[in-house]
Every structure is written in structure tokens, then in C-alpha cells.
């Protein structure tokens, strides 16, 4: 009689018993699916043992049928997560006494170990999409992956819908060709569209080949909003006012993680907390720009319980399991219910205990957003997952990687590429154009040998035209295109991390800035290093050009609902309730399906504020377009400011007909002209040119500066715009500019409904609802050191004027 599909081998069973545990149902279901040879998507609450569920079939197979080569590939969106998984996986393997090797391979892995891993891979390899793509660029990838049985994609929601997901999807298609029996597994706690992810995971998008395994429900999270001791602020977005209260929460709990939405804010919050840390509690900071050794040191200190709190960014959003964390604090609004749930899951990483979390709103709109996020979590509502076509720059990079490994046949490669869902609708003509671009750079660039990376033999096989292009690809491949960074070092050579070249260019000898939790003084700046020394002088915060987190559509809808539903207001603090009540008396609170536009005059300027709730990105784009149209109409615009909730434009002439500024044809006329004339398309082209391999960031032994990369791409951009406007990379840049940089989808949705739903209210003075966005105008006029105090004074003056009852 055969054993049931979900029966664990004896060493595993003894290990569970020794811990006083029993395998959970979904863990056994994953084992059963594996034994049937089926791929699977596991959706399970944080703390439900997702990682163990993903690896349980691998451990069972390697115990029952040991193999020497690579058996399972684990792909993580974060280096820190791969390292954390290794630590948590090696422990049970050692305790069971089984001979299974587990190793990581990321950009931080030493080169000698990378070479050894290709020659003698471990049974389980933990990596990232970029490192996997590089592995596939070697000729020995065909032997390394020949016996691969399983690929496990952890935190699949974090990258499946973006460019890194495109790359991983193509990599899985290649692996499936090398190892046809390979199973695909994906894990996530926050998936709103399981069928969408099953299709993404499956070969050829065949959803029926991927089983959906649902985890057991855990204890409901315990989330509260931390309110200030006096009033919810009118302005700001970081919750810095609450530093002393946050420090008190840290003192009250064993271990806390303080999440910030940006690296700059993390540095700022760490300094604020340190000033309030009268008990000298050990606290640390963690973000992606810190040196690897600094991150590892902090991670080890957290794992061993030596830190009471860690200020972090999205570098720790996903999966890292520190069991002693008993409180998570989100500084500023979370921007999405899925992100909030993910971050909350770092607290009490156990299924049967409630996660403890606090949200610190930065202003009154952010209070409404925080309340909306809590309601969404309670209702089990996650942010929507938006799948789209795969990008052409990623495809070009992948095709070059495949050619580096071995020559390929065009028809066979097209079939392989189409088996990846993001590229399933790729046409023959577009595939030809991408190959043509790699072959010679395109019509306008084919006179230059440096762009002739591929050639086609008489037998139709595509191969790399010169060995130098293989080395060039491996040095430059990658999907994340960051601004060029300078190393921050002490005079003795010790590295602290990296700051962007653009920020470094604003510094001079003797200037000070906060980094890695320290106040640093600049001693010297050269092409690659920023030499500093520690100081106690006041300092500024480094700026980073990373993309801003957009407000999710589901939270935006809930905030709109709050404005229109006074029956909900009893749940709000008195000052927030008063803010809405006076807005209702003095102006209008729009229904969810309405676009409120207010106009008023203040200090000789004419203002128009539109409350569209489409997120900062869309509002920035709209502000550029509307002010351009105002100029055309003779309204003499002076500028605009925006936040996630509203757009405020101001000028010298009164706006009497806002509807004319919001007509849908603005996307046909002004939008195209603006994107082409602005830096946006050039910036998008810079990124796709680097990803697509047209411009290299590094040569053997040296790295280009950001200015050199920019000069190269801008020069090529101008040539292509003039002589080859249909170039495949210009098309890719346009796709990026539309979707990612301008959020044109939300913009189009707003403009489509504007004409029919606009409610225009002309007011004698500023309204309560306008205060949080109008305060942003003052920020541009104030020096860094005095900004907070000055903005507070300006906000109070505006609020006094807005809240006065006639």
C-alpha cells in the first residue's frame, strides 16, 4: 500500500514532533501537489509558515531520493530575504542531520563562491531574478539546471507585475526548456487576484496547470492610529511630530520595527528618535543604500534580540522573520492596504497571535487614509494587481543573455518567449525589431560597431558577434536602474554606504549630512568616493530619486467615501471631525463620484484646487498639463503643487471655467507635446537604454559616472528622435513614460469623468480642505534648517483663515 501524498518522511516528522509542532494543512497540501507533479500558488497569512510550505516538498524529496546537483531554485525580491531564508532553512536541516546544502547567490556573493556554485551547485540555491538571469548567460547553465525539479518564487506579488517580473517570467521559460519537468511554485500573503498570478506562473499562461492552495486564517491584526498629544497636523507626511510618542512605544515593547516610505525619511526619523531616546535604548537603521556589512550587522543584531528598535524602509517589507518583534510602527500613511498588511506581518510572526501595529499619520488627509487602510485590512480588501504586457527593454536584455550562453534559433526562441505570459501576445514583427536592435542598434546606429552585438549565421542561428559583448552584458545586466552612487567612506577606508551622485554634487568641503544614523562632515569628494568624518554639527538629509509610492485606488475610494458619509465621522478625532464639518458649511464635500474644484483668491493670487485623489504621480502630470493650458488661455499661471489627494494651481488671472482645463483632449494634445519636450521621455529612455544594453554603465575595471551615462543616452536619444522616431527603444521609453512616470491610466480615468462630475465652487477665501496642499507652496521658499518651524507657522495661519465661520 502506497503512502498518502501528504505524508512527511520520518526525519521531518521527528523534527516537527521535537518542536512540539504539527504540519499545517496548507503545508501538507503543498507536499501533496508536489507529489502529483503539479505547480502551485500558495496564498497564506504572514506567520502561517509559507516558506516552510514552499520548501517542504523539496526537503521531503531530498530526504527520500538524495541528489547531488541543483534540485530547487528559490527566487526572492530582496537580498536580505534570501539571507534570512538561508538562516531559517539551515537550522532544521542541521537538526535533522540530513546532507542538504543550501547557499545564496546575489550581487553580494563573493566571485570565487559564484564560480564554485556553477561548477558544483548546492541542492538548494537562493537567489534574485537578476542573479538568475546572469546564471542563464553562461554556457554551463544547460548542465547546471538540467536536473532542476522546482523553482519557488517567494513574495510573488512584490515583482510579478513589474519589470523584474518580466525578467523572471522569461527566465522561467528558459529553465522550463532546459528542465521540462520543472515545477513552479509561488508564495504570497497579499494577493488580490490569485487567478492572475496562477496564469503568470504557468507555462503558456495555462491556469489549469497551477493549483491554488489557500492557507489557514490567522488571528486578526491589532492595528491602531497613533494620535498626537494635541492635534492632528495640517501639513507634513512623515509623522515626525510623534517622535517622543514613538520612542515611548519602543520602550514599552520588546522589539519594534519603524517603517518609513523613503530612505531619506528613515534617516530623518532615526535622528528624531535618537534625540528623544533619553534611556539610550539600542536602536538601528536599515535601508538599501547602506553598505552590505552594515545591513548584515543590523540584521544579526535584530535576529539575536540586541536591538530594541530598527528604523527601516521597504528593504525589510518582505518576509524577514524576526520572531521577537512585537510591534510595527508605520510612519506616515501606508499608501495601500496590502503594503500595510505586509509590514504588519513583521510583528509577532506567528499564526495564532495578533500582529501589533501603529500607524502615525502625517496630516489630516493622511489620518483619513490611515483609517481607510485599517478598514480595508479589517474587510480583507487588498490593493488591485495590475498585469500588463512585458517590456521590450527587458526582452532585449534576456535575448542577449540567452545568446551569451549559446546560439539560438529565432523561431524556437520566439516560441519560448511567448510561453512567458507577459510576452504571450508578442508579434513576429515586434520580435524581429527587438532582434534587429540587438543586431546593429537600429537603422540610425548601424554604422557603429559598438552596437553590433548579435549576428545571424547562414544557418539562421543568432550568436554574439564578439566575446567582448559577453563580458559587457554580464557587467551591466540588471533591471533596477538607480542613479549613479558615490561611496561614503571614512578617511581610514571604512565604507558606510552610498549616496546618489546628484546629492553629492550639491555638497562642498565642510558641509554636513546625516547618513547611517550619523552626522557626517565632508572632507573630500572625488569621482567615486565621498570622504567624511563624524561630527556633532547639525546636518541635512540625503535626497534619493527613487519613485514615490502611489496612493492605491482602493484607499482613494475609501477616503472619498469618508468625505461624503458624515455618519462615519464619529470615529474620527474631534479636530478632524471639525475640519470636515466646517468644510461642509463653507464649501462642499463631494460625493465619491464627483470631482470638487474650488477657486478663490489669496494675497493677490488666484487659486484652483481640484480634489481628485489620484495620487501624487498623476497629479504632478496633470499640474504640468493644466498650467500649460492655463498659459495658452492667457491665465498667467505661476505654478502648482500637489499631494496624493489634491492638485492646486495658481496664477494671476481668475479661473472662471475649470472644466475647460480638464477636458479629455489634453491627453491628445498637451500630453504628447509635454512628455516629448520635458525631461520625462529622456529619463525613461535613459533607463530603457541601460536595461536594453544600448548604453553600458560599466567597463572592465571602471564605471561610468552618471553624467557620462546621461550624456551618452541623451545624445543617442536626440539622434533617434530626429532620424528614427519608430525605434524600438523609443517605443519602450514611451510605454514607461505613460505607465510608470505619469500614471496616465489614472489620469485618463480622471479626465474622462471630469466633464460630467465636476462640482465648481467659487469661494471668497481658502477652504479647510485646501490647507494641507496649499502649505506645500511655502516649502519651496524656505531653507532646510528652518523649514519645519516656518511651515508650521504658515499652516496655522492658513488654517485660522480657512476655519473661520463667516
Summarize the structure in words:
Helix 8 runs parallel beside helix 15, helix 15 (about 390-405) crosses helix 17 (about 430-440) and helix 24 packs across helix 26 (about 730-740). The protein is globular, with a radius of gyration of 27 Å. By secondary structure, the protein is of the alpha/beta class. Strand 3, helix 5 and strand 4 form a beta-alpha-beta unit. The strands form 6 sheets. A 7-stranded parallel β-sheet has the order 3-4-2-5-6-1-7, sandwiched between helices. Helices cover about 40% and strands about 15% of the residues. Mean pLDDT is about 85; it is low at about 780-785. It contains 29 helices and 28 strands.
Mean pLDDT equals: 85
Poorly predicted regions are 780-787
Strands, total number: 28
Major beta sheet, strand line-up: 3-4-2-5-6-1-7
Report the span from N to C terminus.
86 Å
Please give the oligomerization state of what you see.
Answer: single chain
- Helical/strand content category: alpha/beta
Shape: globular
Figure out the total of helices. Answer: 29
What percent of the residues sit in helical stretches (DSSP H or I)?
40-55%
State which percent range the strand residues make up. Answer: 15-25%
Largest sheet: 7 strands, parallel
What is the C-alpha radius of gyration, as a whole number of Å? 27 Å
InterPro entries: ATP-dep_Helicase (IPR052511), DEAD/DEAH_box_helicase_dom (IPR011545), DEXH_lig_assoc (IPR026362), Helicase_ATP-bd (IPR014001), Helicase_C-like (IPR001650), Lhr-like (IPR017170), Lhr-like_DEAD/DEAH_assoc (IPR013701), Lhr_WH_dom (IPR045628)
Family: Belongs to the Lhr helicase family. Lhr-Core subfamily.
GO molecular function, one term: ligase activity
Domain Helicase C-terminal: 242-395
